[in-house]
Design goal:
about 15% helix; alpha+beta; 7-stranded antiparallel β-sheet; 4 helices; about 250 residues
């Protein structure tokens, strides 16, 4: 599967207490989902994991973030770092300062999107995210809140036109399914089903089965219908391996 930018080069994660009366109903649903998946633990924990042969280390505090990935390719040992100050790449310990703006953007988006997916639903309260409640629905006999997320042009990144659907359990607020429409690399639409859950450091990490329709121009809103009828093709599995967590130091 191609790594996608979801909304912005750097998603500004946030956590808001679900008791705030000023929150809209859809915001309260997302708040409850974030709480069910880890809540404030997201802001207090550094995590690391392996994904498709690449090692990732991620932390996000209220004031800083750093996403790091390490892998080996034909050039040697590569270390990419995306943080508050920007993006850097080192190969065999040597800083590469000849990257074009286009390459920096592509590498930044790739690193950021893995962090975004790994931390979902944390991040859906980003200021650029526009959330729309689509009502309740049922999948495999379970009741879900269905929420659509789009992004504002301002602050929403260069791919702000991408669209997302999330299904949160009515009783447990767990995000068992998601679907998205994207425009990079020719575009397409995908749906993910949770296949396995791992809990570490008080955070719920989810592995997925990734599905695609026969036609890449399939409307996003039809993905649930196609999924329930077995009309989607299994494309890949999204698995996080060797997950480790550690508490961030107190400020």
């Amino acid at each position: 599967m191609k790594i996608l930018l979801l909304g912005a080069i750097v998603i500004s994660f946030s956590f808001v207490g679900i008791s705030c009366d000023s929150r809209s109903e859809v915001e309260k649903i997302v708040d409850a989902a974030i709480a069910a998946h880890g809540g404030e633990a997201y802001q207090k924990t550094a995590i690391s994991f392996d994904f498709r042969g690449t090692h990732y280390s991620i932390f996000k505090s209220p004031t800083a973030f750093e996403y790091r990935r390490e892998f080996t390719d034909s050039t040697g040992q590569v270390v990419d770092v995306l943080n508050n100050t920007g993006f850097t790449r080192k190969v065999n310990g040597v800083l590469i300062d000849t990257l074009t703006e286009e390459r920096v953007g592509a590498f930044s988006r790739s690193v950021n999107s893995v962090a975004y997916f790994a931390f979902l639903p944390y991040g859906l309260n980003d200021a650029a995210a526009i959330k729309t409640y689509l009502g309740q629905t049922k999948i495999k006999g379970k009741d879900y809140h269905k929420v659509k997320v789009t992004f504002q042009a301002e602050g929403g990144g260069e791919h702000f036109e991408d669209e997302f659907l999330y299904w949160f359990g009515v009783d447990d607020y767990q995000m068992d399914y998601m679907a998205y429409l994207y425009y990079t690399d020719g575009g397409g639409v995908r749906m993910r089903e949770v296949r396995q859950v791992q809990e570490a450091g008080g955070i719920r990490f989810q592995d997925y089965i990734n599905f695609k329709p026969v036609r890449k121009d399939t409307p996003l809103d039809s993905m649930q219908f196609l999924y329930e009828r077995g009309a989607l093709e299994k494309l890949s599995e999204i698995n996080l391996e060797n997950i480790r967590t550690s508490p961030l130091p107190e400020n």
